[in-house]
Amino acid sequence: xxxxxxRVTKKFGKKTALDSISxxxxxxxxxxxxxxxxxxxxxxxxxxxxxxxxxxxxxLDGKDIFQLDADYRTLIGYLPxxxxxxxxxxxxxxxxYMASLKGLTKAQANKKVxxxxxxxxxxxxxxxxxxxxxxxxxxxxxIAQALLNDPKILxxxxxTAGLDPKERIRFRNLLAATATNRIVLLSTHIVSDLEYLAxxxxxxxxxxxxxxxxxxxxxKAMNGNVWTVATTNELLADYQQNYKVGNIIRRENGIVVxxxxxxxxxRQAVKAVPNLEDLYLYHFDDxxxxxxxxxxxx
Length: 298
Ligand SMILES: Nc1ncnc2c1ncn2[C@@H]1O[C@H](COP(=O)(O)OP(=O)(O)OP(=O)(O)O)[C@@H](O)[C@H]1O
Hints:
Belongs to the ABC transporter superfamily. This protein has helices at 40-47, 65-68, 70-73, 91-101, 106-119, 135-146, 165-177, 192-195, 215-220, 233-242, 276-284, 287-290; strands at 3-12, 15-25, 28-33, 55-60, 63-64, 76-79, 153-157, 183-188, 200-205, 208-213, 226-231, 244-251, 254-260, 270-271, 295-297. It is an alpha/beta fold. The chain has two domains: 3-219, Rossmann fold, CATH 3.40.50; 222-297, no CATH class. Helix 7 links the parallel strand 7 (153-157) and strand 8. Mean pLDDT is 90; it is low at 288-298. The protein binds adenosine-5'-triphosphate.
């Protein structure tokens, strides 16, 4: 199965949210990595056919998804960033409602709702109202509804935003278990979501396609660009001014800075093994703005 995007463009008035994206997606998890506002949700909405592109085409095995229409929609599962849950519905009622919208028969729905409630560990909460659920519980019901029709293409938009670490890991594990024999598209700006999950990572920036490759290949390309440097408080500002700086670790006898540089930034710098945070920092340069630098006290 192949989903082929050719020159997919989306404009909102003068704003170009997606600019001529061409890429082919195959089975496995593809993580779409981009800073806030880079166009991830727009791309997901278009792939879910909630929105049409201004230009370009998307073919599923050679057929236009908008022409396939309902035949395409029966193949997809979509968990949007914001789900309009019915707060007064219980999980069980909500899943039955979604199953009927997806065209499952009563017998199919009974079987699938039961299976999903158990799979996401919500069987004990099935009669409670969704309005009372935690963020993580809502996301588990969200992924359950997306999988009711056993979709061949699963689209999940920033599913772990706002979840606590335990729920995030739980959700990631659920997603990992769904990845065989489907195209799974997962948008995120949280790199750790992709570490264990993604077969491929697509990087988009300001609506542009930057690159797509396996995490291993993306990290290999950064070999020799990531360094750690033991320094002092006084010299820290210099490094921050001249390099993209990631984690700063404070130790009793000084500071260790992780930074990106094409060449050895100082005599005492030591080459580090690149990780996905470095990749994010390399492309987006806004680690310091979007997330506070973690100050580990050793
Ligand atoms: N309906 C809309 N009308 C006007 N502009 C929009 C609309 N939807 C998105 N945009 C703009 O398009 C750009 C891409 O937005 P999009 O929501 O796709 O980004 P994103 O990467 O998903 O961001 P986030 O991580 O914050 O959700 C942004 O500049 C956004 O303001």
